[in-house]
């Protein structure tokens, strides 16, 4: 994928902080927290390839987690950000952790990252992927009626926000253009369900894993695997939050990211310094 096609917004001044959204979302997911973050950082909110305004790869091009990580790493290097702070939600959280494992992150804040859920914890995600493939075979007009039905909008709201009302007092709605045959979402979703994070031992930067207690997409108990994989990671439980916590409690999410950016590791967790010759 060509990193030059990534569309982004830039706010504030200070040490660079790159924000990475989740599957099917876009850079606007970070709007509730951008102003607070931009008071202390130069903030870059990206549209990941294939979402928002950033073009996806061609039908034959690679499009999985490794390709996304490579593309974001290339974008950061081209933007003159060799080691920015990173914060990501869900898919974006995994991309941030993978970049942390490469040693190119000053800190990582992962909000409900993919790659740590197992077995029945992934049931909802697998059903979502199965339903998505069925939806691509349904006429567009009928599919839009399904999306706009109250039961589907209620389930969507419950999955994303952890309750039956979103923070704006309405039922959430899926974007019908996302769930079409060959769309970036339908190509990437199976990869997201299969993905397992394995780079924990080499993540040496300050790391926070924050999880919404009401997350219905990736249950909060998966946080235990993050802490086993990255023992120095700090755990934050986001009370009253669902899978996209920026909507539920932007103040706490912003504080969690900012405090990670200024966090220092214990000496035992820091990478060993090279000995003098």
Automatic annotation (TrEMBL):
Ranges where the AB hydrolase-1 domain occurs: 17-254
Keywords: Hydrolase
Top-level taxon in the UniProt lineage: Bacteria
Gene Ontology molecular function: hydrolase activity
Name recorded for this polypeptide: Alpha/beta hydrolase
Organism the protein comes from: Nocardiopsis suaedae
